[in-house]
Amino acid sequence: FSPGLLVVAGSFAAFRLLNRGLERLVPPPPSARRNRWKWRNIWTSLAHSVLSGGGALAGFYLHPELSKDLVGTHPPGAHSLVAVSVGYFLEDFVDMLCNQKLHQSWELLFHHSVVIVCFGIAVLLHKYVGFALVALLVEINSIFLHLRQILLMANLVHTTCYRLNSVVNLGTYVVFRIATLAWMTRWLFLNRQNVPPATYAVGTVGMAIMTPMNIILFYRLLRSDFFK
């Protein structure tokens, strides 16, 4: 039994409670009242992105040894952050499964399944925590992706705030999502001799799934916000 599982369970419960209370903390505008669960879901996702993205940056700053050894180094704070993220992705998986039709959410459900398996390995084995933390840098871009959804639901598309967020969203997408995933794929390829076959297979399949999904999303963002 791994103590990390307690953190996962606690995180699941905490994000579930946050999701339930968000409608009082951030009441939905009239344009979002038809889809209250999604309003709560996006704000919950935004909270996780701020926590995990900021935590990943802080982790590499406070523990420089993580960047030198992505496999064996596992400071308690970094390990807990990965476990917290597993709890969030489990909560979000359940939330979408209960409130959204499968044909509308299958891409995200599939994405979450891959992340839960990969991060779960890091939590249970106390290995690859640094690699998981690199993956969490992607959440820095997710902050602006979620803000974009919030502005869309609030019917604030034709505002300076939306345009500014679109530019920042695109820039962080290239730096923290596409470049990060490319770097992770390269690291896996260069270190294939040092990673057990089963773990290497999971990581490779994960990258093979994530990369095209993110390229497609990038194209959709470009088409929607810049070439519409």
Automatic annotation (TrEMBL):
Compartments where located: Membrane
Entry-linked InterPro entries: TLC-dom, TLCD
GO annotation, cellular component aspect: plasma membrane
Entry-linked Pfam families: TRAM_LAG1_CLN8
Bilayer disposition of the protein: Multi-pass membrane protein
Transmembrane segments: 131-147, 167-189, 201-222
Ranges for domain TLC: 34-228
Entry keyword set: Membrane, Transmembrane, Transmembrane helix
GO biological process entries: membrane assembly; phospholipid homeostasis; plasma membrane organization; regulation of membrane lipid distribution
Major subcellular location class: membrane
Keyword Transmembrane in record: yes
Name of the protein in its database record: TLCD2 protein
Gene that this polypeptide is encoded by: Tlcd2
